[in-house]
Design a protein that fits this description.
Low-confidence stretches: none
Distance between the termini: 8 Å
Number of helices: 7
Oligomer: single chain
Shape: globular
Number of strands: 6
Helix content: 40-55%
Structural class: alpha/beta
Order of helices and strands: HEHEHHEHEHEHE
Amino acid sequence: MKLKIFLLTILVTFLPTVQAQIKVGIIGLDTSHSIAFTKLLNGEDPKEEFKNFRIVAAYPYGSRSIQSSYERIPDYTEQAEKLGVEIVSSIAELLKKVDCVMLETNDGNLHLEQANEVFKSGKTVFIDKPIGANLAQSIAIFELSKKYNVPVFSS
């Protein structure tokens, strides 16, 4: 359901430009959600509602302090590459290659900093739970979204 809402939001955002394929980027390959979404969009036979979307690039980090998260990064990176995703070395590099972003980093402590970088680029962003590590960070994320006039949502 999260993915459908995200893609519908993106489709409405880009509909006036009639773009053939919308390039999606992922920040954070430290959660199984990253691979699940990649399989849905980049798999051999995506559902009709996903056909105009492709995950083209991913920045793998992610948590560097939660052991159960950072230990998954090498395996999830390999899986993403097998699904045709280019692995990049920074969020800035990712933003040059994509139309929108799925912020999947497992550690909510990083979301404010990562989302801010995306907002500055003007790219629509989905932030997987949690929005932020605490209420103050979550509010700050939505305030930055307003400041940069960039759509953001979570589910």
